[in-house]
Amino acid sequence: MAAITDNRTIALTHFTVSNRDEKPLLRISTAGSVDDGKSTLIGRLLFDTKTVWEDNLEEISKSKVNRASHGLDLSLLTDGLRAEREQGITIDVAYRYFSTPKRQFIVADTPGHEQYTRNMATGASTCDLAIILLDARKGVLEQSRRHSRIAWLLGVRHLVFAVNKMDLVDFSHEVFDEIRAHATHLLSGMDGVIADFIPLSALDGDNVVTRSERTPWYKGPSLLELLETVDPPHVAAAQPFRMSVQMVIRPHLDFRGYAGQLASGWVRVGDPIVALPSGKRSRVKRIVTFDGDLTEAFAPMSITLELEDELDIARGDLLASPSTAPRVARRLHTTMVWMSEVPLDKQKTYLLQHGTRVVPARLNGEALALNGIGAVEVETAELLPYDTYRDNRATGGFILIDTITNLTLASGLIEGEVREEEETLESFSDAPFTPAERRKIRALLAHMKRFGFSFDHEDFEQGEGI
Amino acid sequence: MTVPVLSHLRALEAESIHILRETASQFRKPVLLYSIGKDSSCLVHLARKAFFPGKIPFPLLHIDTTYEYPEMIEFRDRFTKEIGADLRVYTNDKAIQEGANPYDLGTAKCCHLLRTRGLVEGLQEGGYDAAIGGARRDEEKSRAKERVFSFRDREGRWDPRNQRPELWNLYNGKVDPGESIRVFPLSNWTEMDIWRYIELEAIPIVPLYFAQPRQVVLRGPTVIPLETNVKLLPGEKPQTVTCRMRSLGCTPCSGAIRSEADTIGKIIDELAAFRRSERENRVIDHDQDGSMELKKREGYF
Ligand SMILES: Nc1nc2c(ncn2[C@@H]2O[C@H](COP(=O)(O)OP(=O)(O)OP(=O)(O)O)[C@@H](O)[C@H]2O)c(=O)[nH]1
Ligand SMILES: [Mg+2]
Question: Which of A229, A289, B106, B184 has its CA at a distance of 20 to 30 angstroms from the CA of residue B286?
Answer without folding.
Answer: B184
